[in-house]
Amino acid sequence: xxxxxxxxxxxxxxxxxxxxxxxxxxxxxxxxxxxxxxxxxxxxxxxxxxxxxxxxxxxxxxxxxxxxxxxxxxxxxxxxxxxxxxxxxxxxxxxxxxxxxxxxxxxxxx
Length: 110
Fold this sequence. Notes:
Layout: E1 10-17, H1 26-29, E2 43-49, E3 53-56, E4 72-74, E5 79-83, H2 85-90, E6 92-95, E7 103-109
Antiparallel strand pairs: 1-7, 2-5, 2-7, 3-4, 3-6
């Protein structure tokens, strides 16, 4: 188990399935209702379940093509903190192996 220092207040949560490249839901990182309306998520805590993922933070689409895979690899059970509004907004992830059924649990910090 890894423990992270958290800077900010948890203000949103979602679970992503990664059959195709996907990013965070826009209304979760820039809420249009609730206590954090109009505020951008400053960070996101992600944890990976079921299977590994590949992710990017610069808008590049992660891929699983053998030998030329794009993106950083996180294994099942790994957790990671993404800091910075632009990094959160540009996050994309995909299954590290086609059709592996990976899940990404996300908590947004404001």
